[in-house]
Design a protein that fits this description.
Blueprint: H1 2-9, H2 25-35, E1 42-46, E2 53-59, E3 67-71, H3 80-94, E4 99-105, H4 109-117, E5 121-130, E6 135-145, H5 156-160, E7 164-165
Antiparallel strand pairs: 1-2, 2-3, 4-6, 5-6, 5-7
Helix pairs in contact: 1-2
Length: 170
């Protein structure tokens, strides 16, 4: 549980994630059991010479196939999330998942850079009153079609939020 605590207690790591940092190991354990444990498409990121998790990559099982990741900050900027994400994407293709989507806060461009590095394409942006943090966020929605249907765009967020638009030069 120490690895989970280190990841989910760090304020900087959790700034752009849809929850607050955990306060202690008990909260970390509860968070893990509620949000990540036993999820079909949730994978720990470990260094090649160590089995201790330093992050995770996941894809939701719902129609969004929302793709997400987090990594302890001392491992940022080393290509680790991109490498792990590419491995998970190959697995999702084998599983027959037709596409993945991912969103990032406009103020977190490094997450968008990861999305582009793994082959995702920007589709549109939308404004959401983000919960539970309760502030307005411009999210950029990316998608990667895994089944060859190049023109498919997941429309749920576009249709759900009144303020949506396409930004140039992303």
């Amino acid at each position: 549980m120490q690895a989970i605590y280190l990841l989910f207690s760090d304020k900087e790591v959790n700034t752009f994630l849809p929850w607050y940092p955990v306060k202690d190991r008990i909260e970390a354990k509860n968070f893990f059991e509620k949000r990540l444990k036993d999820k079909k498409y949730c994978f720990a990121i470990c260094l090649k010479d160590d089995d201790c998790p330093i992050g995770y990559v996941h894809a939701e099982e719902d129609d969004s196939h929302d793709f997400g990741y987090a990594l302890r900050k001392e491992y940022w900027h080393q290509g680790i999330v991109s490498e792990a994400s590419n491995a998970v994407i190959e697995f999702l293709k084998e599983e027959g998942i037709p596409y993945i989507t991912a969103t990032h806060d406009k103020n977190n461009p490094r997450s968008g850079a990861v999305m582009r590095r793994i082959g995702m394409k920007y589709c549109y942006s939308y404004k959401e009153q983000w919960q539970p943090k309760n502030f307005l966020v411009v999210f950029r929605m990316y998608q990667l079609n895994l089944d060859g249907q190049k023109n498919r765009v997941y429309q749920k967020y576009w249709n759900l939020y009144d303020e949506h638009f396409i930004e140039g030069d992303i």
